[in-house]
Amino acid sequence: MWGAGFKWMFLIIGTTIGAGYASGRELWQFFGYESGLAILLFTLFFTISSYVIMDVSYKKQSSDYLPVLKDIVGPKLTNVYDIMIFLYLFTTTVVMIAGSGATGQAFRFSYWWGVVLIALGLIALFLKDINGLLAMNQIVLPLLLGGLIYILLLFIMDQELDVLADWHEQRNWTAAFPFTALNVLPLIAVLGAVGNKVRSKQEIVVAAIGSGLSLGTISFIYNSSLIQIADELLIYEIPLFAILKHYPFEILIFMSALLWFAIFTTAAAGILGIATRLQSIWNLPIWMLAAGMIAVMVPLTTLGFSTLISYIYPVYGILNLYVLSRLLLYPLWADKENREV
């Protein structure tokens, strides 16, 4: 139970911690000053949402997101959100591929080297279907989470920061809603693809609580660190590098490698959601569908990493508020609909 629960927990975290999140850009976009309560609410909302999505997927024994989406948003809006999820996965995977290019640029490599590396890696990963993604997550994500927490705590101690200094001022608490909404839509796509592989409710509980607490804790520590270097964030494409500049070059190399793998796992999750949906239309191998989608995505990465996040993420965060409300209130309206049936 615990092992399987952690497997799904890492899938959830891997879907969420990508180029925008792990780099700090997405956190700074939504949170920043006076956001402690917002992050606490995000932790609660995310845990509930993850549980509901996994529970519906498990009951439906789904292999793609459409049956799960239909249950959550209702049949009338299914087609609308089907298109939205597809476009969301497409555009955010473009963001991940662009993030790989931006990471390469930080070390004076060509932007296109980073793009080609992630593109080829994604196609190779899906040669083993979904099992390759699950196996990679269980290796890479513990390293990523441990490394990120270590660097952030080291920074807080070195700078002698008081992370609770402005806890009495929480005017940004409403940011929890669009931020959670932004992150739950890809979960429907990814968890909807593995519903037929979940074996028990206990796995769902472990995955939902574990992922919510992990992301909530890291978000709070990360945001507290970024507040201290707010003036420098305008000149950094990737805010994490503004923190890493205080440490030896070896740490920069290590964390940059982990950041790239965070980008890679989220891109892989996006491709998984798209490919499993397309498989219900065209019965082709996932790697072949992945290759076709990536070929279309690569030219769009020239829009720029921070530009994509600045415009795409907030828009989707607002549009997905309806999905979030359905997830948080799922026990209430699901019971009512069942009684009416």
UniProtKB/TrEMBL annotation:
Superkingdom of this protein's organism: Bacteria
Residue stretches spanning the membrane: 38-58, 79-98, 110-127, 139-157, 177-195, 204-222, 251-274, 286-305, 311-329
Keywords associated with the record: Membrane, Transmembrane, Transmembrane helix
InterPro entries, per the entry: YkvI-like
The name this protein goes by in its record: Membrane protein
Native source species: Lentibacillus halophilus
